[in-house]
Structure to design on (554 residues):
């Protein structure tokens, strides 16, 4: 679609946009490759990208403002709707932040269940990303293979939490219900199937020369740029930035677990791809350590029916499947927060897209966007 | 052109380029055949089914008992429920989904007693967060294992949970 545009940030870019031969093309807001309502205004010179301008706000629901009118128990369910692929981890961050203000010690059983759920969610999110990523690049079959394993996780979630995507299972003080009696058996079955089938993805996707050629050397993001754009998660670890919140600022007993922080130095799309593949195996490692060692006891600490936080400011960060997620609560001492700020990983990762895409071809943009793993409701909030 | 160079050096690298080109073609074809072998395996092994059908078998299908479909209020055979009208669910709900309308019953002793007239439930506002179920002190409401809530008119989604003529179970305070 062609249109004459004057949407520009500064004077130099304005001149660049008006050069003869420039072409402006809109990707989205309704486009299968953007996985949501993301609008990209791309300035092209021939087939080379000069500038990528993301336009946000199509799925803005004012979640932060909504949270100000909800109590500390109620606002957690809204965060499932932000990064809906790692909803457990978002809920976890909010619950931890509220617990920090309440000064509550939660039982060991609840801690272990929370970590298990987090890691299962991380695997499910990466599985979906892997299928969708391959589908963006034109391979349709991997989508079914990854969804077969993801379906098992969804079944586990359905049985224990009662929902498949937006669970609202982690509450201040612990978890909402105890785990289902079948939980351990089902997770073990899943781990068995996952470890035997993950090699298939290497055969179908990773080893494929066409796939490698489309990924290697595409979307270069240097280590310095990754830090300066505030990238976190696999997007930054692919550039060699050590930023795993589970390692740097451990929470909920991650410091006692044996797992590696995955780092790659490729700085390109393929490095970011390999990070996620290898991260899934680390999550499996964490699950294997915990699944037989769930301590007995309560699944929820005794808390008051109405939670009141003392006056002050509380911050908690966790590692979601996409990067660092932060919750900042300002309390005036009442039952509802005075102000809530969410630091979502997708927003910072998206800001690096323009830098990555400049000078490369339009066809490579899909590979870059795919490896950033953008979830649009997380960006807009 | 020096005499010491081997044969392919005299072609100025063109020969090496050709060899590399052919190598790349062969490795690409090989990598694709490896992928196609996996696809072919599933093509010929129908028992390792990957896709699942939409659950059209409503009578025989089994959803987990914790599945959050919609809020219902169970009644026993005498048309009695356990709801005392304490409005804990109404306060716990983040969306204003539940509205409790109370009335005052006159007990046989002549005392006034609070009871529910209607428990109105707006399914169109509900996010199935389970907070009302957790908040209820007398286990009066629970989640039902239903799905596919689409209807033609929005008013059909506003439901009254207690049956007409129902009253509170004995011994529930």
């Amino acid at each position: 679609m062609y249109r004459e545009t004057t949407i520009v940030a500064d004077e130099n870019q304005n001149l660049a946009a008006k050069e003869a031969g420039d072409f402006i093309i809109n990707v989205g807001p309704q486009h299968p490759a953007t996985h949501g309502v993301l609008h990209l205004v791309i300035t092209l010179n021939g087939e080379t990208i000069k500038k990528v301008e993301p336009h946000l706000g199509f799925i803005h629901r004012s979640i932060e403002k909504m949270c100000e009118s909800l109590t500390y128990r109620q606002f957690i369910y809204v965060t499932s709707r932000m990064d809906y692929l790692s909803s457990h981890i978002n809920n976890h961050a909010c619950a931890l932040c509220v617990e920090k203000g309440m000064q509550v010690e939660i039982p060991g059983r609840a801690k272990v269940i929370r970590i298990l759920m987090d890691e299962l969610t991380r695997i499910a999110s990466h599985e979906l990303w892997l299928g969708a990523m391959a589908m963006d690049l034109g391979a349709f079959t991997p989508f079914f293979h990854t969804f077969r394993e993801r379906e098992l996780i969804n079944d586990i979630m359905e049985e224990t939490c009662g929902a498949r995507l937006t669970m609202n299972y982690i509450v201040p003080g612990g978890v909402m219900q105890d785990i289902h009696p079948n939980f351990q058996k089902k997770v073990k079955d899943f781990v068995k199937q996952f470890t035997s089938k993950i090699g298939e993805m290497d055969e179908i996707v990773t080893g494929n020369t066409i796939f490698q050629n489309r990924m290697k050397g595409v979307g270069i993001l240097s280590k310095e740029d990754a830090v300066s754009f505030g990238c976190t998660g696999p997007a930054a670890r692919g550039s060699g930035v050590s930023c795993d919140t589970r390692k740097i600022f451990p929470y909920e007993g991650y410091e006692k677990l044996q797992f590696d922080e995955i780092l790659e130095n490729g700085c390109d799309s393929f490095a970011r791809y390999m990070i996620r593949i290898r991260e899934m195996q680390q999550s499996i490692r964490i699950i294997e350590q915990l699944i037989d060692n769930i301590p007995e006891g309560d699944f929820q600490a005794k808390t008051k029916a109405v939670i009141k936080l003392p006056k002050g400011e509380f911050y908690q960060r966790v590692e979601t499947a996409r990067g660092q997620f932060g919750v900042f609560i300002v309390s005036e001492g009442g039952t509802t927060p005075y102000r809530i700020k969410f630091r979502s990983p997708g927003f910072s990762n998206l800001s690096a897209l323009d830098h990555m895409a400049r000078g490369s071809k339009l066809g490579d943009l899909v590979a870059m966007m795919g490896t950033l793993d953008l979830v649009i409701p997380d960006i807009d909030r | 052109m020096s005499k010491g160079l081997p044969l392919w050096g005299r072609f100025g690298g063109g020969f090496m380029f050709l060899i590399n080109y052919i190598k790349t073609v062969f490795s690409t074809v090989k990598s694709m055949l490896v992928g196609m072998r996996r696809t072919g395996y599933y093509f010929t092994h129908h028992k390792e089914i990957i896709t699942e059908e939409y659950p059209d078998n409503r009578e025989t299908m089994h959803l987990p008992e914790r599945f959050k479909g919609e809020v219902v209020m169970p009644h026993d055979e005498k048309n009695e429920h356990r709801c005392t009208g304490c409005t804990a669910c109404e306060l716990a709900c983040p969306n204003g989904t539940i509205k409790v309308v109370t009335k005052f019953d006159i007990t046989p002793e002549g005392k006034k007693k609070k009871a529910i007239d209607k428990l109105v439930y707006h399914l169109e506002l509900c996010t199935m967060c389970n907070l009302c179920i957790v908040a209820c002190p007398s286990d009066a409401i629970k989640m039902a294992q239903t799905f596919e809530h689409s209807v033609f008119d929005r008013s059909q989604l506003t439901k009254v949970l207690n049956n007409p003529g129902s009253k509170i179970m004995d011994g529930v305070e």
Notes: The beta strands of chain A are 22-27, 39-45, 48-55, 170-171, 174-175, 312-319, 324-331, 339-343.
